[in-house]
Every structure is written in C-alpha cells, then in structure tokens.
Batch of 3 targets.
Target 1
Amino acid sequence: MELYQLKTFVAIAREGNLTRAAESVFTSAPAVSAQLKALEDELGVKLFERTSRGMTPTDAGRSLLDEAERTLASATRIRSAAEQIRGAAQGAVRFGTVADPVAMRLGEVLVKLAERHPQLTLQLRQGLSYQTIDAMLRGELDCAYVMSDREQVEGLALRRLGPLDLVVALPVSMAEANPELTLQQLTSLPWVGTAKWCALRNHVDALFAAAGREFREGPMAEGESILRSMIASGIGAGILRLDQAQQAERNGELRIWNGWRAHSWSCWIEPAQAKRSEAAEAVRTAVLEAWA
C-alpha cells in the first residue's frame, strides 16, 4: 500500500467525482481510477459505489476513511520531523505553469516535493506562455513551465524538456462538408487564432505561408481550452496540441486534418544569473527528474 493511493482515496471521498479528485491531486482521471482499483484489490473490499451522482463511499469505505486520513497526517508529521533534522528546503516558490498540468507532469513534481520537502510551498500561477515569460522577466515568478519554439530568451535560462506535437483541428461539420481538403482549401476556411506572441500563432502563420497566403485576424482564443471549445462549437479551424485534439476527437467534438503536423516544445525557464534559493533548487531538481 502506497501513500499516494491513500491520498487518492481521500480525494475521491471529498470530491465525490473522479475527474475533480484527479484535478485535486494533479493527475488524470484514468490514473486515479487505476490507483483506486489497486487499493481495493489490496484491501479486499470495495470502497466506493458509482452512482448517477458520482462516487459514494461504501460502508467499508466510510469506515476506512478516517484511518486513511490519520495515516496521511502521521506521515506528514514524520516527514516534517525528518526534514527539520536534515535541514530540508523550506519557503515559497512562485511557479508559473500553463493550463494543462497533466501534460507538463506537474503532478509528478508535486508528489516529489511533498515527499521530500513538506515545508516548501508552491505558489502556482497559470497563464499563457508569453504572459508567463513576461512575468518571469518582471521578476514576478521564480520559475515556470512554458510552451515555446524559442531556443533562448534574453535574461532567462531556457531548457527544453520535450516536444509537443501540433495538428490542425476542424469542427465536425466543417470536416464532413470538406472530406478531401487540400492545404489551399484549408486556409480558405474560417479560422480561430491566438495572440501574435503565442507559440501556436507562429505555426498558424507558417501554415498559411506554406499555402502562399497571409493569416488574417478573426476570432481569437485566449488559451488552449478556449481554443478547443471554439473549434468544437463550429467557429473555425485551429491548431491544437495532438494530445488535446485526439481526446476531443474521441469525444466527437472535432476532427483532425491529417495533412499537416508540426511541433513545439515544453520548456522550463528560470532567471539566467540569479543564485537559486534552496527552495527553488529543490523545485528545479524535482522538475528535471520528472522529465528525465
């Protein structure tokens, strides 16, 4: 039995819903479901009933919930005592991130920090990547995840963590009305854009340039989740991360156009010259381990 399984058990009981529980422990709903099943198998009892109103604890679940909470509280006290003995990192770190914590492996980072440095506090701030970079340059953040095509940013240290595949997504009605789209036809359709400083916008401009056209401003989305919603609602085509587009396509929200693919990068940024605090160094170590 692992402590993260008990944390998941408690989160499901509190939230009454797998999706909300997953968000509260910074992981995915399938991962939460798998952790719950593994715990139920080990304990030999069913902890929840799935109902139309969500996840309802069984009699066994209610009986064990208090024990799980006490165990987690005891584990926290033990870690705190050990951290004080060995002088672990303490303090607050202002951490910027994009809107999708799962794709950025933020959950893994938080688990590592909670286990190693329970006295460390992360002050999370979500935003668009170009806004997060500006906040870093203004000194409002200590470190951040961003999506960027850039290899360097003046005044900041940038490290590429992994590639992010990008695809063109179409509203279902638009895809069904145009089953054999060429690039020229694609760029003649209505589009949903993003801000000029956004990494996704760079790829929209490049796609239109390949068709010998210039992208014209129209409907604009502030963020990937809004962009996905606008495409699904039929406003126009747009560029999404492949993982988001595939999920939306499985849900019947949109269609992926298979005639184009590109990639951007998940990146880690921090001040280039400033000496890192012990807390910031602890966060950096956890991030690089999660992406190793």
Target 2
Amino acid sequence: MRHTHFLESLCLVTLLFAPLLLRAQTAADPGLKIFSLAAAQPTPATPPTPALALVGGGADVDEAMKFLCQNSGGGNIVILRASSDDDYNPYFHNLCLHNSVTTLLITSVEGARDPAAAEILRNAHAIFIAGGDQFNYVKMWTGNPVQTEINAAIARGVPIGGISAGLAVLGEFAFSARHDTVTSPEALANPYDEKVSLERDFISIPLMKGIITDSHFSKRERMGRTLVFLARIVEDGWSDHAHAIGVDEKTAVLVDAKGNARVVGKGAAYFIELPRKAGICAPGKPLTSKDFIGQRATAGSDAFDLKSWKPGPDAKPVFIQVINGLLTVTSG
C-alpha cells in the first residue's frame, strides 16, 4: 500500500513540475542556453502553414503571436534571442495553449554551432526572433547551423516572425547595425556613412524577396534612413527595384501564405518602393530623389499584396521626396 501511495505521489510531483523539468535541457556550449515549457493543452501536431508576423517593437502584439500559433499546426514554437532570458516562454504558453515553447538564448558563435540548437530548430513548428541588437544575430548565426536550420524551416513551410531587431533581419536585405544604429539625419546627409551597414540573403523568405524592413518607424522617425537603405540597395546593384516595409510600435503586419498582408495593433505600416536609382546617392553627398512611391495602412486594414506589391483598398498614398538630404512627406 505504501508503495502505491509513493508511486501516486511521484506521478503527481512529475505532473506539477514537468514544465520546470523540461527547462533543464543541456547544451554542449555555454554560449547556448535552452529553456522549454510544455504545452498547456497538448494536441497532435499537424503540418505548419507559411506565414509572417512583422512586429514593429515597443510592445508585443498579441494578435501577431496568436497568428503564428494558428499557422504552426501545434508543435513547438522556437524563440531565438541573444540577450535576456526565457520571458517569452510563459507569454506564448498562455496565448497558445496547444504549443510547447522553447527559447534558444545564443550568446556566441560556438553556441550557434551547438547541435542541440540545430536539432530544436529542425523540429520547430514556428519561429520567433526577439528584439535586441540585430548585429548579434548576423555575427553569430551567419554560416552556422542556426542560420541553415532557420532557412530550412522556412523552406518546409514553418511560419516565422520577429520584433524590432528580429524584424530587421527578416527581409532579403537588412540593416545590420554592424557599426551601431544610424539616425535618419545621419543617413540622409551621407548615404555611405559607415553606420549605413546593409546585409543581404541572411534569412531567405520567398515573400520577402527584394524587401528591407524597419521597426519603431514613426516614433523614432526612421522614414529617412529607410529611404537611404532603398537608395543604397539600388545604387549598389543589389536590386533595380527595391521595396521596404516600415512598422510602427505596438503594430504588426501579418502575411499569409499567398502574400496577403494586413495590419494589426495600434499604429500603421508603410510600404515604400524605389523603382530606379536615386538622383544623387553618393559618398559624402546628401541624398536626392523624387522617385519614392509610398503607401500607408493603419491597423485594422487589409494593406497589401506583397507578391504583386499592390495596395489594398484601405491603403493611402504617401508622397515622398528628398532634396539635398531634406525629407518631405505628405499624405494623399
């Protein structure tokens, strides 16, 4: 009888502390820490559906995170970050009852090479990249299994999202912040300022081909620097027709498998293109261009078809020009 009570007690303790036990996964390198939390209501996983959640920063957008979960088909959501800890685990755990959650805290190149990280990403049903400093992601993941497995996951249809720095790396082109951040006045004054550091092909998402992203868009007045990014991409021959998506704080752009984008949250998103070289985009000279084409879509609107780059009925034109480094923006 005592043996039976002991087994019952052991089972109860195991159930109560299962989420904590799951956190105690081991990594071969100290540059990788793994935190896991079991699903609140586990169900058999089904194949994921491609989707994107582009979150502008400032605060998480619950609808964006739920969107990732809805397209995951259940299974494990993998959080990638280079600082902080596992605070996204309880957040996703409470929002997405049928998903388990694992945070990979990668703080070194060696951590990005750890087989445990690759294995977790290999079995991911959704991926979310946290904020911080995007150059940590670029310098630690490039050429390593983490980068390989992220791109492999996307290729097999795993939905992916990112906030702030995590959003910055989701386009074909990315502002890497290799030499720290850059303000709009700095970039407009000299498009080839050392701080205007751009990367390409870091993460390969078919729907983000030809696109660069920016976050905290209105609050930090990032329109000017985003225009410079576009001008540089075309001037440097990376694309002859470049596109950008700028997302406000507390706002997200949600993109389905067909490329249909809608805006949720509390702010707006900006969809900007540059179809030809800027009038002046040269080292040491202020930017000049009248060729930018912009659209603004507020939360609650069906904003854009990313595949065709056609605005939805709710998007409003934004008229943009830069003359000798001075930006003028007017709404239609």
Target 3
Amino acid sequence: MQGAIRVFLGSLFVWLNLVWQPPVLAFSDTSSPVCALHWIRPIQDDANNRPDRFYPYGSTGQGRYQVHHGVEFENPIGTPVVAVASATVVVAGSDEEVVWGRHRAYYGQLIVLEMDERCDGRPVYALYGHLGALYVHLGEHVEQGQVIGQVGMSGIAVGPHLHFEVRVGSNAFDRTCNPELWLAPLPGHGLLVGRVADENQNLLEGVLITVHQAVRPEQYWREAWTYAAMRAEQLNSDVRWGENWVLGDVPAGDYLVRLRVNDRLYTRQVRVNEGQATWVEWSIPVHNLPKRGAKGIMLTP
C-alpha cells in the first residue's frame, strides 16, 4: 500500500487515496508480475483499444441489456485482434454446437486462449467473441501481440465489435472476472478500483458512482456502476481485488468520486497515478440503506 488512510466519518469508514496492489499470488511463470494490469490490449494502438464505457463488465447498459460478462472494443469489421499474452488456443471456431456463453450461437465465431501464466495455480483464459475471421487453430501456441483474428459481428452482436472476457479457474461462463484488471493502463493513465458494501461486507449492487475532475468538482466527467445481480448472473469479484466496480483508462490526476445511497451523498477525493490502480472503498451503515428490494440497491453476501 502507498498512503493508505482509514478515516472515520460519523458511522462511515472509508479508505482514501490508496494506491493498492493485490495480494501476492503464485504464478507458474516467475517472470510474470504478481500484480495484474500487465497484458497488452486485444486491439492494436492504431485502432480503438479502449473498452466501451456504456456497457462495461458487470453492467446492464443502464438496463438495456443482459448483465455483461466481458468488455467491448467497438471497431470496424476487419480490425485485427491480437493475443494479449503468450498462450495456447483451446477454442477456435463457431459456438453453434458447443455452448461457451449463455446459449448456442452466443459469441458466433470465437477464440479462447489458455494463458501460459497461471494465477495462484489456476488456469487463466482470454475469450474473443463475435469475430469475423480466425487466423489460428486449435492447439496452436501464440505469442503476445500476434494477430489471431478480425473484429466481426457474429453471434448476438449488435454492431461490429470485439467482445473480450477473462475467465479464471476454468473456461466457463460463470468464471469470468473484470478484464480491465488484467490489461495494462494506457500511457499516462491509471484506473479506479473499489468496493461498495454495507457494514456487514455485503456488496451493494447497481449503485451509480460518478467521477469528477478535482479542478471542476461540479462538472460530471465519467460514471461507473457497481456490478449488477452478481449471484443471479454468476459474476465474480477478482480474487486478488475483491472489488465490485472498476473505472479504467482514467488520466493521471486528482478526482472526486461520489455516490448517493438512500439520498445521502458520499464524496471522496482520490489521486490516480500513471500505470497504477487507486482503491476506493465505502462501508455504508445498514441504517443508511434503503429497505431490501428497493430499486437500484441489492445486497450480495
């Protein structure tokens, strides 16, 4: 930790200005960083390599779509996609016969890589969905940065884009975690990672978090939502982080992070450093929460 401060405000505990590294885990490749945030982007720098902010991991696109198990990179059909790290191809083709997502023909043409590194002894997989072309075959070993396919619009895709997932432990739809915790921040950027829970450590779902640049505190800059329906949708916090919200690609600088629960506004000032994650955690007293089942707030034990 760097600059970890636990502050007590009334009945609210919160960690402030914390640049946090996840616990050290055992990787089979000792040259791999023990922290996440080290893969390259699955889209090259000359195309759109920023995940879409309207429909990030664990969100519903403000209620328009099913809960998202990955992130999206919107790009024209034919845009190359690359291996985020060295790996072996374990799936390459159509999902019309074998279910890899919610149902058959969900991803359309897809590739799944089993990464050379293992996280705490468990296999790690990267899934590329809705592809238009595949350049690799089952069992092939690929190197970081190698072009493995093209963006398409297959499966249930609405518009051309790459759907990208990370799965830990097994290559299964219920083993996903947030891909932005595996991808290296862009130059000059970091990310915000956090946890919103009640005082009993039950995660709060569907909470809107707004981020404001410190120099323009009243001007909205970007938003994030805590993960929705985690148990029902089989979403997962990353075991190394325990988070339930992430906002990636945040330019280094000072910010105000705000959330509102049951008409109470909580504001915290944080600093984002280049190449690092800044951790922001709230523990909301139960008596400040709306009654169970109120719109926008659910609890995940």
